[in-house]
Specification:
5 strands, 5-stranded parallel β-sheet, 54% helix, 194 residues, 8 helices, 14% strand, alpha/beta
Length: 194
């Protein structure tokens, strides 16, 4: 429950280049979920020029991690404002502290965690292949991002795995095949399934 609204939340986790973005767009289109990206919400808040946005911008400039509460508040506001009650939360929780804070603050436990599992080699190949002027897509940075993902996100995945809440997808397959696997998982949430 969020206020007086009952919500379904799915956390979407996967390393850089695992194809999360593409599949989130598919899930939105076919299953009527609203896609919330923690990064996008933070960027939008900075753009808004609010006091909160200025604080976030300064933290990012100083290389600090934005406190969980800040990100969670933005996610919560976005869910409350939305007319929808089904949400994909992408790229969050990034670590165990995020996860615990999300459940404490919102009192929401995710329906499940969608984990796009992809080898480092495959992700490297994809990221170097898509290098459309993204500053963070060179090999050193990619390896660093992958290492950070593994170290911080895997404990989150293990936590939910112990609760049998992780749906793992082999993300190394071609996009249409990955989506077939995604569709099978989301079938109970199809608009006409109710």
């Amino acid at each position: 429950m969020l206020g007086d609204k009952k919500v379904t939340v799915v956390f979407v986790l996967g390393g850089p280049g695992s194809g999360k973005g593409t599949q989130c767009a598919n899930i939105v289109e076919h299953f009527g979920f609203t896609h919330l990206s923690a990064g996008d919400l933070l960027r939008a808040e900075i753009k808004s020029g609010s006091e909160n946005g200025t604080m976030i911008e300064n933290m990012i400039k100083e290389g600090k991690i934005v406190p969980s509460e800040v990100t969670i508040t933005l996610l919560q506001e976005a869910m409350i404002k939305s007319a929808n009650d089904k949400f994909l939360i992408d790229g969050f929780p990034r670590n165990e502290e995020n996860r615990a804070a999300f459940e404490n603050v919102t009192k929401i436990s995710p329906a499940f965690v969608l984990f796009f599992d992809c080898s480092e080699e495959e992700m490297e190949k994809r990221l170097l292949g898509r290098n459309q002027g993204r500053v963070d897509d060179n090999i050193e940075t990619i390896r660093k991002r992958f290492k950070v993902f593994v170290e911080s996100s895997l404990p989150v995945i293990e936590y939910y795995n112990a609760k049998a809440k992780v749906k793992k997808i082999d993300a190394a397959k071609p996009i249409p095949e990955v989506f077939e696997d995604v569709k099978a998982i989301f079938a109970p949430y199809a608009p006409n399934a109710a």
